Amino acid sequence: MKRRYHLLALLACGLSCQPLLAAASNPLSASSRPLNWNAIAMFLVFVLFTLAITRWAAKRTRSAADFYTAGGGLSPLQNGLAIAGDMVSAASFLGISAMMFDKGYDGLIYALGVLAGWPIILFLIAERLRNLGKFTFADVVSYRLAQTPVRITAALGTLTVAIMYLVAQMVGAGKLIQLLFGTSYLSAVMLVGVLMVLYVTFGGMLATTWVQIIKAVLLLAGTTFMAFMVLSHFGFSPEALFAGAAHTHAKGKAILAPGGLVSDPVDAISLGLGMMFGTAGLPHILMRFFTVADARQARKSVFYATGFIAYFYLLILVVGFGAIVMVGADPSFRDAAGKIIGGNNMIAVHLAQAVGGNLFLGFISAVAFATILAVVAGLALSGASAISHDLYATVLCQGSASEQREIRVSKIATLAIGILAIVLGLLFEKQNIAFLSGLVLAIAASVNFPVLFLSMFWKGLTTRGAVVGSLAGLLSAVGLLILGPTVWVEILQHQTPLFPYANPALFSMSIAFGSAWLLSVLDHSPRANAERQRYLAQYIRSMTGIAAAKASQKH
């Protein structure tokens, strides 16, 4: 195992040196974009440091509980930081700051959509989830229902969400590294894929969590410094900041008012629902609640995570509006055509250079890379867990597989998911990342969340209702997205969309909930009656934690 680890680590280090090699062998690339030695140095330090963490975690990962949930021994502060790291992804740091730079006030919709909804949802489900589950959210959904059909459906939903989200992250990572280091898109995507497989295969949840914690601390520290420097530029006066942004931006004072991004109220509600409930249906987020000792620790984790996420989005508001003045008005950040170099998604990176010079630019570039890397590791682990724990150990082996065989299958699944993510990342290189991310949240809100919520809070849910509800949510979310304006008009080039809204969550969630309810109330089979009678025992365990899975070690 050590030999394999060293070989893969050398491969990762070799790939991480690709920027240097690419710049040396491609003078045109190097001359068209100066080599960022600060970014490369910090990038290499981060890679080596996280590989050392993976080696440490590998020595402490012995059982299935260690591999899937870090032994359930994380502290609430550690878990809260890791959850915050999952939530403040590259899409938040780069995407929302870019949206504020472009749309002003309306960029807050994406930040507030997540922030306003998910603590309420997760405070409701976090404790019950921890008391009822062991490794995956399918443990909870199938608690009193038929294991085989429910686990297969849950695994299908988990894999669909995890792989689609992985593709979006891989495309984003490839483009970011390609821009920052002048390397090829192929080597950038391969580097992310190899590191992701290394973290998960050898370190499991423990390595994945610590990579996420380090990244969260670095991102919060870096964004705090950026916000401080922006405010110091305006004499620590938010009023002067917003007035300067309104004066500089082409839309003037309109950027301080809502209504410029999503004008249709139905579409706006649907977008908000997708962000709120989609977040609570992401499998790699739900797995985080099994990494602490009990329900009380899970509740504390949400409390810490909420504070960190709220603080981050407060800083992003300053970063976005500060960039309008400090980057938008500076011609050195624009190309010959007058557009932002690298596109608007690079606005936070440019602001880092404006407030902290090349050294801080290197730091933020490395943090942006770490942000993507940490999220893809969590996604890969959740997908691998669905294959090894839900499909292999529970469905195929009916619970007779040993822990060693289950972990081995999980590592093979991680390798397969890593290869698949690289291939799909290359195939979807030209695809719109925002569309892929929207697809993920809409599917998660429609496939995973309705059956998870109903299984915990409604006595009447039956196996038939859970399976049909999940499948109906999956098909309706994908179908409405294809028929909506994003795909039907913008990609397939039709004149008008067959479905008028870009955000389908309002409708696909309703279909999922409605299907699950209808099929459950119409099910009068003996199995359905037995499943309803088992709800009382499930309710007692969910509220008391009696017989819940225990933590095996502390970290």
From TrEMBL:
One of its GO terms (molecular function) is symporter activity. It comes from the Bacteria. The chain crosses the membrane at residues 39-58, 79-101, 107-126, 152-171, 177-201, 213-234, 268-290, 302-329, 359-381, 412-428, 434-454, 466-489, 501-522. Keywords: Cell inner membrane, Cell membrane, Ion transport, Membrane, Signal, Sodium, Sodium transport, Symport, Transmembrane, Transmembrane helix, Transport. GO terms for cellular component: plasma membrane. It is found in: Cell inner membrane. The keyword Cytoplasm does not apply. It is a multi-pass membrane protein. Belongs to the sodium:solute symporter (SSF) (TC 2.A.21) family. GO terms for biological process: plasma membrane acetate transport; sodium ion transport. InterPro entries: Na/Glc_symporter_sf, Na/solute_symporter, Na/solute_symporter_CS, Sodium:Solute_Symporter. The keyword Zinc does not apply. Residues 1-22 form the signal peptide. This is Cation/acetate symporter ActP. Pfam families: SSF. PANTHER family: CATION_ACETATE SYMPORTER ACTP, SODIUM/PROLINE SYMPORTER-RELATED.
